[in-house]
């Protein structure tokens, strides 16, 4: 912060991770960040339709918000955020993200105040610029928070832990459309942008409040060096004889495939959210206010799905869960493309339930065994969110040229790619149905910043005794 003033308090966890009660406070702080961007994302989908009404723009033009949000923010800024995280640590990275987030939100006030149909193009361009600044902040927060949630605790429970944190993202995301249905589509507000000013002023204040909380909090910092605690535990090697996490990051093919899967998944999720209201209005005859409420209910379903998936992941293999859920989303999405009427809206809402664990699980799979590359790998996986910037204009063009129902073939393609990636992981696990109890994982005794763990090996009796001592 300018002028010095308040010191940034951190505690370094060298060669280890937190457990038990020590884990509660850091996870609670990180969860607040998931809540922030969930609320912001929930508002974004509703703004698409609101700007179509007030500024008279097309469906394709309205996806400019998604292009700025996911393309400008996440694709372009995530590598910068990852480098800040690599050089300065989690806390500085988080404070930078909160600053950008709050600045972008407060910029909505003057933009909305001077907007009108007479200067629709300039007005919408201003909103896109505001969205870009917010997205840069959120990309920074997501790069830090996703990675931190994975590495701060036991690698054995990385996937359920990240799913739990991400579940609060869903809690906030359904609050956004609920507020928007009243603030944007009701009465005189349906044809003006006045309430957009006040809603985003509140968003900015919320970001500032969380930033102040982080300034004074003692956030444990995870050491990046891959230090092992005992020479009895040997590093794991790949089929080429390289130590896992020690080679070039561009040869981490699992991470690259994880990026592609994340790109396609987020693209599918974003297009479904961006065109949900249009689909409900065009294909089922719902009023816009009712459609906004239905979107909120769909996001509630998404949130419930996150918590249920977190519970299932403590018993079942995450890869197995993802294969089942991917098949379900593909089947439901196919029905959405072909069906008509209110039943098809139910299918769209059901997709939200099965999408729920996909982002955190793919993130955990993609950053597994990265070792010293974990922080940069997290930034690359977050860049996958840019899929929303690519898929949305494609779907918007199809919706304008044909209809909204046919345009839902775009997310269907995304879910097919996700299925291929998670099926590959499930195959690597030997098609296990139950969650593998990693008592024989090398990181059970070795304290390394390698994120989640997907490899196993049998240990010698001496090593097993050492692991037992560590656990006791």
UniProtKB/TrEMBL annotation:
It is found in: Cell inner membrane. Its main location: membrane. The keyword Transport does not apply. One of its GO terms (cellular component) is plasma membrane. It is a multi-pass membrane protein. It comes from the Eukaryota. Keywords: Cell membrane, Membrane, Transmembrane, Transmembrane helix. One of its GO terms (molecular function) is transmembrane transporter activity. The keyword Oxidoreductase does not apply. InterPro entries: MFS, MFS_trans_sf, MFS_TsgA-like. This is Major facilitator superfamily (MFS) profile domain-containing protein. It comes from Aureobasidium subglaciale (strain EXF-2481).
